[in-house]
Structure prediction request, 204 residues.
Amino acid sequence: MFGIADYGAFVVAIIVFLAIPGPGNLALITSTGKGGVRGGLAATLGVIAGDQVLMWMAVAGVAALLAAYPAAFSFVQWAGAAYLAWLGWKMLTARPGDAPVLDIRPRHYLQQALAITLLNPKAIVFYMAFFPLFVDPQHHQGLLTFGAMAATIALLTLLYGLAVVLLTHFLAERMRAHPRIGQAMEKLAGVFLIGFGVKLAISK
Prediction:
């Protein structure tokens, strides 16, 4: 279909990729907890935008650049690790009454999720290495093939993000009567972000 090798497998691979715990999912959950459904949807759009940038960078041949210059990938990996660790530290050290680490204005959620996606080596590895495997060289149709893949990724990410946002919002509403639980969850999210940063920094 559209020059995509095994479209069904491609769809399943995207869904599995989305469901793997990581910074992207944490960004959606945290944004929804802070800004409600509006903030969560803004973060979802940020993730979609980041995915599209990475995918089209792969199309443009950035994969070859990273393969030829491993230091380029190492730089992105360290930048992503530092950013996540910094964000986690801000959440971990925040005190009641402090300004939220993630601004409640939706455009900030979008920017935050976009930055996390672009600096997430998991996403970079997928689009730069795994994604090209689904391009059928015998039936490749140029921009039509890549456009179909991009549209599929965007639609699946939107549906997945919507599900995560609605579920998170439902649980957050149940917790508003117990603010200490919300504070504890924010600290836990900070610990996870620092953990993601350390893991990315030491991974090869």
Observations:
- Residues 96 and 183 are 8 Å apart (CA to CA).
- The chain has a mean pLDDT of 75.
- The longest helix spans residues 23-59.
- The chain has one domain: 7-202.
